[in-house]
Amino acid sequence: MSKITPEGLERIGSLGLRPEQLPKHVAIIMDGNGRWAQSRGMPRIMGHRQGIQSVRSVTEEGCRLGLDQITLYCLSVENWKRPARELKFLFSLLRRFLVRERALLMDQKVRLTMIGRREGLPAEVLRELDKTVSETAGNDGMVLCLAINYGGRTEIADAVRRIAIDVKSGRIDPDSVDESTVESHLYTAGTPDPDLLIRTSGEMRLSNYLLWQISYSEIWVTDVLWPDFQADDLLAGCRAYASRERKFGGLPQPARA
């Protein structure tokens, strides 16, 4: 369980909020890297490089605020359609992030996890990913989950396939299959659903992200491009979340009461 730092308490209090009003799990669609770079006359890949600074800022702020988990949409299954040069740079950037940020993750007691298909990912990326996941496994602070080679529909299809295998083998009675059965076969099995989904760059779509898990998540969209998204922007999203009435199909529920 992540603990709020004194600085985090001060920041929360400056907004007139209580810690229990904040989301515990925040999922983020990091959008706008290419537009950020192109608006400055730079190659698209420079936006991805600058976006790493935002990942660091958001991770540190999440730790200060005592969030339990942040899940970042790093690479979708659709991103394989991008130019080979851009993909090569993205994987190189991801590998370097896993190496260079390892000490910071340990210092912040962050536990790194990953969801998505491993198939097709470069061996050097998987090697550094597995090393960072292993080294941070004992940390008891915030979870930083990277969605890599991920797609919501792909995740559900993979879950259905695994359920079908279990039914065929007799491990599952088909008449007993329900929502909990599906949840237990998702990549995110055992992880609480996001309370808040943030999308940067002003786009109003889900982009095949956590389609099952965000069924009752609050959604907050900001026009800020991801490379410009910083700690204060995450706090603004949390403040917007705290102002919502969460009904879950029934009567209003106070946020994180």
3D structure, described in words:
With 257 residues, the protein is α/β, with parallel strands linked by helices. It is built from nine helices and six strands. The chain has helices at 6-14, 33-38, 44-65, 84-100, 102-107, 123-136, 152-169, 179-184, 231-242; strands spanning 25-29, 69-76, 111-115, 143-150, 196-199, 218-221. A six-stranded parallel beta sheet has the order 3-4-2-1-5-6, sandwiched between helices. The longest helix has 22 residues, at 44-65. The chain starts with 5 loop residues before the first helix and ends in a 15-residue tail after the last helix.
Helix tally equals: 9
Quickly name the level 1 CATH class of the largest domain.
Alpha Beta
Helix content: 40-55%
Give me the CATH superfamily of the largest domain: Decaprenyl diphosphate synthase-like
Shape: globular
Tell me how many strands there are. Answer: 6
Domain count: 2
* Sheet with most strands: 6 strands, parallel
Note the quaternary state here.
single chain
Residues in β-strands, percent: 5-15%
CATH topology of the largest domain: Undecaprenyl pyrophosphate synthetase
Distance between the termini: 17 Å
Poorly predicted spans:
none
Measured on Cα atoms, how large is the radius of gyration?
19 Å
User: What is the spatial order of strands in the main beta sheet?
Assistant: 3-4-2-1-5-6
Name the helix and strand elements from N-terminus to C-terminus, one letter apiece: HEHHEHHEHEHHEEH
Mean pLDDT: 95
Structural class given helices, strands, pairing? alpha/beta
What is the CATH architecture descriptor of the largest domain? 3-Layer(aba) Sandwich
